Amino acid sequence: MTQAPVNVTVTGAAGQIGYALLFRIASGQLLGPDTPVKLRLLEIPQAVKAAEGTALELEDGAFPLLAGIDIFDDAKQAFAGANVALLVGARPRTKGMERADLLEANGGIFKPQGEAINAGAADDIRVLVVGNPANTNALIAQSHAPDVPAERFTAMTRLDHNRAVAQLAKKLNAPVSEIKKLTIWGNHSASQYPDIFHAEVAGKNAAEAVNDEKWLAEEFIPRVAKRGAEIIEARGASSAASAANAAIDHIYNWVNGTPEGDWTSMAVPSDGSYGVPEGLISSFPVVCKDGKYEIVQGLEINEFSRGRIDASVNELAEEREAVKKLGLI
Ligand code: NAD
Ligand code: LMR
Questions:
Q1: Mean pLDDT calculated for residue range 291-295
Q2: 102 CB within 6 A, ligand 2
Q3: Other CB atoms within 10 Å distance of the CB of residue 322
Q4: Helix/strand/coil for 243
Q5: Would you say domain 6-155 falls under CATH 3.40.50.720?
């Protein structure tokens, strides 16, 4: 081991994403093969026993990088000293339920968690919100952590990004490794916009390679945007292993950088780029380097993209208004 353990707090540790996520963190896939981790698991009191069961299995993995596991039902304790916080615990959307219905149900969870992060997390804290509605939950947590730089609060659209890469690769009969510079804009919801106009396949423009606007508008975009619902319909439960995989990818790239010549998608507090109102936690193309991310600048946004980006961003603005009215921010 080459460095001191990094404290990783995971909420909702006894849930289905938690079960898929924790073993991969313990194996070193979140931060890299030289970084030992200490897991700090947060659950509601009724689920602490199940989290303890998962901790027994983690122990049985004999992971060389796993330097300890602590389990809490108190947010202040769970986030004390946290370097990375994965906010997964929330109520998953069930069949027929829209994300907006979840605002009120979940908002209450993220206010105390933001306060706890503010009170006790480490100075280099990085937060990823996975629990839905992820963008607005991140906004709630961030607004209750005034002492933490706002840009440390992010929400997950990497699953959408990965889904879009996979669908595009399939359409073009190309390996996923050849697809670069795809972007998810906006909200992690059915209004999101997967943009292939700047994407590349084997170094060539992907939109030109597809050359099929009907497929783009009527198949690709809805397929990616509604993939969460498709999984729920097929599995009878929301995506879990693919969501855990995306959370690993998001933090890994944030900490270790994005590959040269590519970018990824992260929902981050807007600085006004691309006309997205400042402060909204919206998905953008980002490049990560030296442990920081930056929104990719200077992309030309065509008319097809503009309307779709605006629609998703408007939904985020409406969610912000709704949680304001509920007194959650
Ligand atoms: P799950 O119901 O299996 O697990 C959620 C866990 O969170 C439960 O164990 C529950 O006890 C716990 N929990 C609830 N309130 C908590 C609190 N205040 N503190 C700590 N833990 C708490 O759900 P899941 O399938 O693991 O999904 C978790 C969330 O992730 C859901 O909101 C789901 O919609 C969301 N999700 C997001 C994405 C994305 O791409 N952003 C993808 C898939 C799922
Ligand atoms: C997903 O994208 O799979 C999740 O956000 C599930 C959902 O609630 O749509």
A1: 98
A2: no
A3: 17
A4: helix
A5: yes
Q: Distance, CA 319 to ligand 1 centroid (Å)?
A: 19
Output DSSP code: residue 326: T
Whole-structure pTM value: 0.97
Closest listed ligand to the CA of 97: 2
**Ligand 2 site, residue 238, Cβ cutoff 6 A:** yes
- Residue 9 corresponds to which amino acid? T
Express each pLDDT in 57-112 by its tens digit.
999 999 999 999 999 999 999 999 999 999 999 976 666 766 567 787 888 899 99
How many other CB atoms sit within 10 Å of the CB of residue 203?
Answer: 8
Domain boundaries, the chain: 6-155, 158-319
CA of 119 to the centre of ligand 2 (A): 30
132 is an annotated ligand-binding site residue: yes
188 is catalytic: yes
8: helix, strand or coil: strand
Ligand 1 pocket, 11 CB below 6 A?
yes
Gap between the Cα atoms of 44 and 109, Å rounded: 10
Q: Please indicate if the annotation marks 81 as binding a ligand.
A: no
Q: Closest residue (by CA) to atom 16 of ligand 1? A: 89
In the block, residue with structure tokens 């292939």: 196
Instruction: Check residue 158 and give left, alpha or beta (phi > 0: left; psi -120 to 50: alpha).
Output: alpha
Say if ligand 1 is within 6 A of residue 107 CB. no
Find out whether 228 is annotated in a ligand binding site: no
What residues does 307 pair with on adjacent strands?
A: none
180 lines ligand 2 (CB under 6 A): no
**Residue 1 pLDDT > 60, yes or no?**
no
Report the separation in Å between the CA atom of 77 and the middle of ligand 2, taken as the mean of its atom positions: 29
Cα–Cα distance between 267 and 154 in angstroms, integer?
A: 6
CATH number among 1.20.1260.10, 3.40.50.720, 3.90.110.10, 1.20.1560.10, domain 158-319: 3.90.110.10
